[in-house]
């Protein structure tokens, strides 16, 4: 449950984009999601480093290497120069983000079209400071924050898109009661709200089963599929799943109502 203070912080981030000249709600959410995702990647890398240090082993599947440490959220937020951060984000972080992911994965396919659209260094600095104060490491809070942002999209958007309210999604997931061996497909996934809720349900109700390596691999790589015909939604949906720790969701372009 979001407190009034957290809602006010998100509203301030939103207002900063509007006053900075980005007024399309979907574009605002896309840009905020990129920044949340970049911050999350830094957090994942930090966790990998801690585990490696405790075990006395090299970092397993590092996100960042010695050659690109300056691209981490914790590094560029401390540069102290809005102009330097803006140039780094535009010229290095986003090109790296577009190439992130396994070759041939749906994530890497969608992110190839990622565009950095924040127009000024001052706006970027303001948004980074605001997002850095948000408790994105708390899973429930992170989901509530993201849902609150998605609520700012009009109920009916472009191309007849409709956003299903979160309480309806959670009711439908509870009624279907997915289990780790299932394969789940949302033929009109949008921001992947159904898939995220399904993943959260399985993790909550079958956490012990997910300790099995084969089951976890199925969960991360083949359990969840989603289709949409809006490329922005595909990028947001892919990042939303990764933000919620599903490593390789199959989110792909398809018009489910078109004749095949």
From TrEMBL:
Belongs to the N(4)/N(6)-methyltransferase family. Residues 138-259 form the DNA methylase adenine-specific domain. Keywords: Methyltransferase, Restriction system, S-adenosyl-L-methionine, Transferase. One of its GO terms (molecular function) is site-specific DNA-methyltransferase (adenine-specific) activity. InterPro entries: D12N6_MeTrfase_N, DNA_Adenine_Mtase, DNA_methylase_A-5, SAM-dependent_MTases_sf, T1MK-like_N_sf. It catalyses: a 2'-deoxyadenosine in DNA + S-adenosyl-L-methionine = an N(6)-methyl-2'-deoxyadenosine in DNA + S-adenosyl-L-homocysteine + H(+). Residues 6-130 form the N6 adenine-specific DNA methyltransferase N-terminal domain. This is site-specific DNA-methyltransferase (adenine-specific). GO terms for biological process: DNA restriction-modification system; methylation. It comes from Candidatus Frankia alpina. The keyword Acetylation does not apply. Its EC number is 2.1.1.72.
